[in-house]
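REQUEST ID: PR-0412
SUBMITTED BY: lab tech R.K.
PRIORITY: routine
TASK: structure prediction, single protein chain
INPUT:
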Amino acid sequence: MSSKVQESTDFVALDACHEQTKGHLIDLLAMLQQMMNSGIDGEIQAKAAGIEEFFSGASRQHHLDEEKNVFPPLLDSGDAELIAAVRTMQQDHGWIEENWLELGPKLRAIAAGNHWFDMEEFQQYVEVFNQLCSDHIAVEETLIYPQAKASLARLNRSLPAS
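STATUS: complete
OUTPUT:
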């Protein structure tokens, strides 16, 4: 067995979660449009339930995994720009969670067939949530993950094979 650190399948899982997130965001926007055009029906309820389940579960775990496994080595990198970018990603996680705490219950209500929420407010939360998540993923995929993978590769080069 090699003493080198294996490229973690965590990046495969993290990338897959980003793809799932993008798909759910597309579904959320389509669901919003459908609701605005024709109200809530069984199809909307099922979409709302699936979207809510993903963002309350897998997406939250994804952020925890990044906070635990991806961000710490980058924060220790000594690269001021990279550290600032990671701090921004951490702040984004907070903003995404704060927005989700408002949006999630509305999706649960839709899934249950309730109509107690304000449609304009719901639309605003959907649009903000979509923008927060989309912008966040773009930075992670173009800066954070490549830097984390490069850091892992440097570590592997510095470790002796056994």
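NOTES: DSSP finds five helices and no strands in the chain.
REVIEWED BY: pending
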